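Subject: Re: docking follow-up (calcium ion)

Dear J.,

Thanks for your patience while I sorted out the input files. As discussed at Tuesday's group meeting, I've set up the holo structure prediction with calcium ion included as the bound ligand rather than trying to dock it afterwards. The sequence and the ligand SMILES I used are pasted below, so you can double-check that they match what you have on your end before we go further.
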Amino acid sequence: MRKLIVMAALAVLLAGSAASPAAAHFDSCVGGLKQAAIKSGVTRSVAAKALDNARPEEKVLRLSKSQPEFKMPIWDYFGFLVDEDRVKDGRAMMRKHDKTLRAAERRYGVDRHVIAAIWGVETDYGGDTGDIFLPHALATLACQGERRKSFWRGELTAALKLVDRGDLKLDKLYGSWAGAFGHTQFIPSTYQRLAVDFDGDGRRDLLNSIPDALGSTANYLAKAGWRKGESWLIEVKLPAGYKGATGRKNRVALSVWAKRGLTRADGKGLSGKAQAGLVLPAGARGPGFLVFRNFDAIYSYNQAESYALAISHLADRLAGYPPLRTPWPTDDTGLSRAERIDLQKLLVAQGYYDGEVNGKIGPITRSAISDAEKRFAMKPTGRPGQKIYRALQSAKAD
Ligand SMILES: [Ca+2]
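The structure tokens for the complex came back this morning:
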């Protein structure tokens, strides 16, 4: 018996030590990353401090397997990205940083509401810049990710070079799982190319300097082809039964869209030569948008149409325009961040969930939602929508 216990303990030790094949593979891969970084010019001591003792980050591997933009219904995505809190907070932050935003708008020709909207969506105006040590996150993706390992290797070297040239301090280099960091979530190679020292202190610090972050974001959009003074999006109304052209790259003049029977969402006419494409993220029964060349500049920030639509609409809201006029074609729209937190509280109170109450809907919350849906004789989807939210609210009231 004693021998068995010793052997079991030994097995646990081995599994947890560098002697296990997976750990040995990771260590040798990280060793290779370190040598490659040094070879491409990173100081030996920086590479060592960044990578010695690196361990695979489980959270990074888990999150790298799901890309929310591509799976979520668009109304869920809008529900929490363009909620009333983000509009209210954004307007307050725009007042607070008015001088910086206007200076960035002047220098780069990019509308300040769009700069602020990116800041708001990426990190909630600097409130949530990520808490994963970047060199370890990037090493995990480079050594154990499923895709694009050489891309992550390059990002790791780029990150360390930013430390080397004095832009950033290694011990402050925290970001999100996919290597984006700072107020507006640049990845290291983009940072290297496009970050600017907008506050003039000699360093490009997008983690600690709001002017550097906002100036750099404006510079990014300018380099992505932003055209000064032009629009990015207008919400439109389609004629009944519209079956014509769509697609953001299918651009024709607004006057042509007018001939096809489209109007602005408020019913006013469209006119002029400005070129726009029609995007219908939820089909012809949902909100429609004409999007301009500047929309493509926003799109390039995250390569997803839903993302660019959310940024564009938030920018409009920050500029004082109303919410979408056309409702989403669903009877079960998404939740705001405040409602997501409230939903988790209700799930806790009614015994479905005992995880963190932070508004982030991960697999544990989803499974709790599914359990609650079953209890209310709803189809189990795990989706945080208004229906299950209301069902839980009325159960509480009983
Ligand atoms: Ca600076």
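A couple of observations from a first look. The longest strand covers residues 247-253. The pocket of calcium ion is lined by residues 197, 199, 201, 203-205, 209, 212 (CB under 6 Å).

Let me know if you'd like me to rerun anything.

Best regards,
T.
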